Amino acid sequence: MEERLQKLLSAAGVCSRRAAERYIAAGRVTVNGLAASLGQRADPERDEILVDGCRLEARAEPVYLMLNKPRGYVTTLSDEKGRRTVADLVRDCGVRVYPVGRLDLNSEGLLVMTNDGALAQRMTHPSHQVSKTYRVSVSGAVEGAAERLSALRDLEGEAIRPAEVSVLKTAGETAELSVTIHEGKNRQVRRMCAVCELTVRRLRRVREHTLELGALPSGAWRYLTEAEIQDLKQLC
Question: Which of 6, 115, 224, 232 minimizes the number of CB atoms within 10 Å of its CB?
């Protein structure tokens, strides 16, 4: 049966539908030897669909992982600059999974990875306001930093929802903050800190929705429990 290519790629666990649009626009998807176009439909039983030269396979069983991403890894499956990727860290799970959301190169912590494109789309869609909590070590103007960060409603001309910020500890001109945001704008916490004259020394995501990073070692991953998966699937 014919379906839009975005849906087919998502159902096969290649990427989310939004990411599939980028793949198609970048010329990474072909149908019967021809470059695909946005909105194109195909039948995987009849048509040869390739992504980066590899045939689109039937959907694998859904897999859900939590990775404790270390610094120095990019949140992609491949990198044109040859940098280490989070895919390298979960290769031994035996299934192609992709990251849900992003953590920049120098950020650490909780990263969900899955081949369930529908769940990934729900978790990253702005309407669901999935909360994310970070431990942020900063230096600079730390006095009153929590109040200034909590008061931000505009970030470089872009409206943002209020963050929940508390001070965990201070030492001279350094502090460790807990920052919870409810949206996923690009490098949001780092940009918020910069506006408030704070230099980020370390940024680690410790919670997303109901998931807790806990004591998972840096660079290690684990399967989500059935209860954790059900909590995520209840996002509406």
Answer: 224
**Helix, strand or coil, per DSSP, at residue 164:** strand
H or E element: which one contains 98?
A: strand 98-99
What is the pTM (predicted TM-score) of this model? 0.77
Say how far apart CA 154 and CA 159 lie, in whole Å: 5
At residue 213, what is the residue type?
L
CB 17 within 8 A of CB 121: yes
pLDDT per position as a tens digit, 172-184: 999 999 999 998 7
pLDDT in tens, 198-229: 999 999 999 999 999 999 999 999 999 999 99
Distance CA 90, CA 188 (A): 26
Which residues are the active-site residues?
104
- The structure tokens 């990427």 sit at 15
Q: Which tokens belong to 173?
A: 């001109």
Burial class (CB in 10 A: 0-12, 13-18, 19+), 70: middle
